[in-house]
What does this fold into?
Amino acid sequence: MAQQEDIFKKIVSHSKEYGFVFQSSEIYDGLGAVYDYGQMGVQLKNNIKKYWWDSMVLLHENVVGIDSAIFMHPTIWKASGHVDAFNDPLIDNKDSKKRYRADVLIEEHLAKIDDKINKEVEKAAKRFGEAFDEVQFRETNARVLENQAKRNQIHTRFAQALNDSNLDDLRNIIIDCEIACPISGTRNWTEVRQFNLMFSTEMGSTSDGAMKVYLRPETAQGIFVNYLNVQKTGRMKIPFGIAQIGKAFRNEIVARQFIFRMREFEQMELQFFVAPGEEMKWFEEWKSIRMNWHQALGFGAHKYRFHDHEKLAHYANAATDIEYEMPFGFKEVEGIHSRTDFDLAQHEQFSGKKLQYFDPELGKSYTPYVVETSIGVDRMFLSVMSASYCEEMLEGGESRVVLKLPAALAPVKLAVLPLVKKDGLPEKAREIIDNLKFDFACQYDEKDSIGKRYRRQDAIGTPFCVTIDHQSLEDNTVTIRHRDTMEQERVSIDSLERVISEKTDMKYLLKEIAK
It folds into this structure.
């Protein structure tokens, strides 16, 4: 685990050093849990968003996009349940004065028990070698069974307390499990209380006439209140979806793990409207589509898993997360929820406006049910960086740090490098860039040795480097170097566009998921 934490620290450091992510307001000592994307980061982020947007809107005839405002009428958040129910259970340690989410403390305690069990299994696997039967060992080993029973008992109590919103029992679990504050090491806890996560501000010119409004904590409600506008103006037939990418804001008390949990973040959401009774079929369908989207990036199927929710939100009748194995464990990157007709029914009630869909085939009106897929852009960005970061030892004892980014997502697709800064080579390199810059993000670099220039491009994940040498002037060929294998081949300048396009064009990735 310590090794994984070291890797995570290296990813954070690498993100800053190479212009991917900066601490926001850094010259003023930073603003907690708010980050800025640098020149490389914004390109990678935009490419992730394009991959998602095109996979939704281009590949599905019945999905369209919108961009709704961040400010919305405050009654929307009353209708959605956010004013009354958008809370985290918080607990303070009286000695360290630090505040924690009670549910996270318990989840981390359960994870420690899981680690104990897995260590027993690993030790036995080493001892018995190929003859080891893991299933039998888990079912018969006394220490494993004892820890599993302890875990199951805590987990049952925890799920019950969450479902009942029983704050007293959440605190009792923390006391009974002897969970200590990571900073003070003491178990001197306050009561658990609820804390609303929405940022509020005022809209209007005077304090008397100002209206309290909220920064949206999710983008979904902007879709729900516009669903009928889109349906009518786009002549959409159910089932259909509305996609949106946009900023959301949550006053997270326990914001940590770099860009994994932030106060200002970006979401990519699809709300898919279906006929009542069809929602579970579409829930399973979108689970499959979304997992396929993630796995098409080539990081390995074993890095992903579904995690069904212990406690369903007030609006859901089914919910699962797609989790990715970050350096700090499996964590949610996307949520898929069957939201029933809760949102539209609530907005109908609170607005007094009819939001039903008239189904011409059935000849009747009904309130559609909704299946949602919601993915955090920043978490997706972190999972891509984590999967791509690689330290390699090379022949001769040299090493390199390389970001093995999927080529379609890489911020820079092609670096053009003149071997020397004379003899017309820089001019030839510029000519190549001028021809290719309409198709690809290109970089020109003439400083330092060719080896150092390769390393710089490896560190930002550039899939191809093209070197122009004296032979290039004679026969119009260049050396193209492949990032992952470091293999080099001679190709004609005329074929560069085709060669690079075949590996880096987003359409080839989209064709992969459309199969």
Remarks:
- The domain at 87-196 is CATH 3.30.40.230 (Herpes Virus-1).
- The chain has three domains: 40-71+216-385, 87-196, 400-514.
- Residues 154 and 173 are 7 Å apart (CA to CA).
